[in-house]
Specification:
The complex is a heterodimer of chains A (about 400) and B (about 260).
Chain A lengths: L6 E2 L2 E5 L2 H17 L3 H14 L6 E3 L1 H7 L3 E6 L9 H14 L4 E6 L3 H13 L2 E7 H6 L1 H9 L3 E5 L6 H14 L4 E3 L10 H9 L1 H14 L5 E6 L3 H7 L9 E9 L10 H4 L1 E5 L1 E6 L24 H8 L3 E7 H15 L5 H13 L8 E6 L7 H7 L7
Parallel strand pairs in A: 4-14, 5-6, 5-8, 6-7, 9-10, 9-14, 10-13
Antiparallel strand pairs in A: 1-2, 2-12, 3-4, 11-12
Helix pairs in contact in A: 2-4, 4-5, 4-9, 5-7, 9-11, 10-11, 14-15
Chain B lengths: L12 E7 L5 H13 L4 E5 L10 H12 L4 H11 L7 E4 L2 H7 L1 H11 L3 E3 L12 H7 L2 E2 L1 E3 L7 H6 L5 E4 L15 H9 L6 E4 L5 H10 L2 E4 L1 H10 L3 H16 L1
Parallel strand pairs in B: 1-2, 1-9, 2-3, 3-4, 4-5, 6-7, 7-8, 8-9
The chains are: A alpha/beta (about 400), B alpha/beta (about 260).
């Protein structure tokens, strides 16, 4: 899907300061060397299986299926991974790569805190220093994850610039990397940023669809009719889609965060409301004003609260291979509560966006049709915020 | 060819960066006129961007305030038209790729030509991505300024070979902002540039004091100062132009 210049169709590229160019070139060379290296892959697989708990389960949600009365619903349980989300897949890969490159320090941005926790975890495991940039706003929304990162030995730096959310954390991590490259690897958390990040992160997350495809063939003897995943930058979605892309019968559906609705300014649904632009190292779709100023975006979910989308998603949208739908805060919160009650699974509020869309389309599908929905993370971190959303103030 | 070369014909060049619209466009215009009067050889007009990833805190804050004050690309174009009634030194825009891309690259760059802007500095456009804008710059006689950084090893001659106007040598790792000292071996980088091109080299990032300017100017053809000037705007607001003028005079004096 990617050409040598890191393009996905017209999207992608390397729109970064000259100061960082040799760093991304070195990263690309190192990745090209190690990605097919048997020892590297053996080490990574051991980390995936023994440390992160892979392969993750593909679970048939029988009760929910019966309740909705349509397509069979399977959940790809990335929420059961160590650290509670799909983020660990990418982080173990990148941390191992960084270590091979001789780097001793990892920096990362985080929104909901899941990527920050995963990076802090990998840094602790591999004996590396770790600094995580997190929007001040998000450190309040996700206080528990801030504590987890500190517990794991990472330094958390609250970012107060701009809207003090995920995009500002990315900007600040980029600034930090520009100032300290020699010993530092920027462990980017999604399929975004300059080439080679969108490709590297996708490859490490592609384990999701590699497993899911084999698992559904084993359980059902056929491919699913659709695969659903939530999309912020889009790493769990591209990981969930990747090995199904050649299977044209499988619909790929990315669920963006509509916030209070795509007809309001309080939304983070990039494909629904954004337009083509250049930001954070890549050409893709971005929420922006008529002069190209990046828009402040909003979603109840800190992990989807980003004004752009990864370049490969932009390309899959352009060519019509994937479709992208917008799911509101209200719908996501309803799905969060529904899945908790119906299946005894508390999903991350990010993942609840995909669950919400499954609830919309499943009833109109035939009973022999199959949906795979990726549960990218678990929802413990969200309980206080959802309680507040429902007017209840929790004190721990 | 643009008239940027004129900036390097009065001894070592002093290049002043000003964030447009901070605190308002009237102050920006007064600062540009004071800077010209006080010996500045080239003006970098910063078009503020919401998320300036190559800037330190001073210019980030100025950009944010300017945008909150309602400044837009079109208002800045109008300001330049006014300035060009009497400002004769070369002027370039410094902004981010999305500001140009979103306006329409050809529309933006042809407007530069029409209003009297001589060049364009885009810190998030490295050599590999310059084709995005270069054809339009060539067509309209606007120089796309190339940057060289302390980490550019192995890339310097490739960049210098295709550079236009002048080469912007980034003095240090990191973002814009004043620094106590600059430790990069800049003379080696300047020498590598000189082996490839006759274009002038100006050093920017981290320079604020006359003694630093003198030292940097001894290594190259000019110095670029941004954050130190924007800090005067932060401190004096609408009263800043006289202070900017005095500052520019002291810096130009130091490098002359």
């Amino acid at each position: 899907m990617t050409n040598p210049n890191g393009r996905f169709g017209i999207h992608g590229g390397q729109y970064i300061p000259e100061t960082l160019m040799n760093a991304v070139i070195e990263l690309e060379e190192a990745y090209d060397h190690y990605k097919d290296d048997p020892d590297f892959n053996r080490e990574l697989t051991a980390l995936f299986n023994d440390y992160a708990g892979r392969p993750s389960r593909l679970y048939f949600a029988e009760k929910m299926t019966r309740d909705l009365g349509g397509a069979k619903i399977y959940f790809k349980r990335e929420d059961l991974n160590h650290t509670g989300a799909h983020k660990i897949n990418n982080v173990l890969g990148q941390a191992l790569l960084a270590k091979k490159m001789g780097k001793t320090r990892l920096i990362a941005e985080t929104g909901a805190g899941q990527h920050g926790v995963a990076t802090a975890t990998a840094a602790a495991l591999m004996g590396m220093e770790c600094v995580v940039f997190m929007g001040k706003e998000d450190t309040i929304r996700q206080a528990l994850n801030v504590y987890r990162m500190r517990l794991l030995g990472a330094q958390v730096i609250p970012v107060t610039t701009g809207t003090a959310t995920l995009k500002d954390a990315v900007s600040e991590a980029m600034r930090e990397w520009t100032g300290r490259i020699e010993d530092t690897h920027y462990c980017l958390g999604s399929v975004m940023g300059p080439h080679p990040f969108p490709t590297i992160v996708r490859d490490f997350q592609a384990v999701i669809s590699k497993e899911a495809r084999a698992q559904i063939l084993e359980k059902e003897g056929r491919l699913p009719d659709a695969v659903l995943a939530c999309v912020g930058g889009g790493s769990n979605a591209i990981g969930s889609f990747y090995h199904f892309i050649p299977d044209e019968s499988v619909r790929l559906i990315g669920c963006e965060a509509a916030g209070r609705g795509i007809d309001t300014f309080e939304t983070a649904a990039t494909i629904a409301t954004g337009r083509l632009g250049i930001f954070h190292g890549m050409k893709s779709y971005f929420c922006q004003d008529e002069y190209g100023q990046i828009a402040p975006v909003y979603s109840i979910s800190a992990g989807l609260d980003y004004p752009g989308v990864g370049p490969e998603h932009a390309h899959l949208y352009d060519i019509g291979r994937a479709q992208y739908v917008a799911v509101t805060d209200d719908e996501a919160v309803d799905a969060f509560e529904y899945l908790s009650r119906t299946e005894g699974i508390i999903p991350a509020i990010e993942s609840a966006h995909a669950v919400a869309h499954a609830m919309k389309i499943a009833p109109d599908m035939d009973r022999d049709q199959i949906l795979i929905v990726t549960l990218s993370g678990r929802g413990d971190k969200d309980c206080a915020a959802i309680a507040r959303y429902r007017g209840e103030d929790l004190h721990e | 060819m643009s008239k940027i070369h004129q900036a390097f014909e009065n001894g070592k060049a002093f290049i002043a960066f000003i964030t447009c619209g901070y605190p308002d466009l009237e102050t920006t215009m007064a600062c540009v006129r004071e800077a010209q009067k006080s010996g500045a050889d080239l003006i970098e007009l910063g078009i503020p961007f919401s998320d300036p990833t190559a800037e330190g805190p001073v210019i980030q804050e100025a950009s944010l305030r300017a945008l909150q004050g309602g400044v837009t690309t079109d208002k800045i174009f109008d300001m330049v038209r006014d300035l060009r009634k009497d400002v004769t030194i070369p002027m370039v825009f410094m902004t981010y790729a999305n500001v140009v891309y979103s306006y329409g690259a050809e529309r933006f760059i042809s407007a530069c030509r029409e209003i009297g802007i001589d060049g364009l500095i885009l810190p998030d456009i490295p050599f590999e991505e310059k084709e995005e804008f270069l054809p339009f710059c060539r067509a309209h006689g606007v120089d796309l300024i190339s940057m060289v950084a302390p980490t550019s090893r192995g890339r310097i001659s490739m960049i210098a070979r295709e550079a236009e106007g002048f080469l912007y040598l980034v003095s240090s790792l990191g973002v814009t902002g004043t620094r106590e000292s600059i430790t990069t071996d800049l003379s080696a980088i300047v020498q590598a540039v000189r082996e490839t091109t006759d274009l002038p080299v100006a050093i920017g990032f981290g320079i604020s004091r006359p003694d630093q300017a003198r030292e940097m100017a001894s290594l190259a053809d000019g110095v670029i100062v941004g954050s130190a000037i924007v800090r005067l705007l932060a401190e004096y607001g609408k009263e800043a132009p006289a202070h900017v003028g005095a500052y520019v005079r002291s810096m130009k004096e130091a490098i002359r």
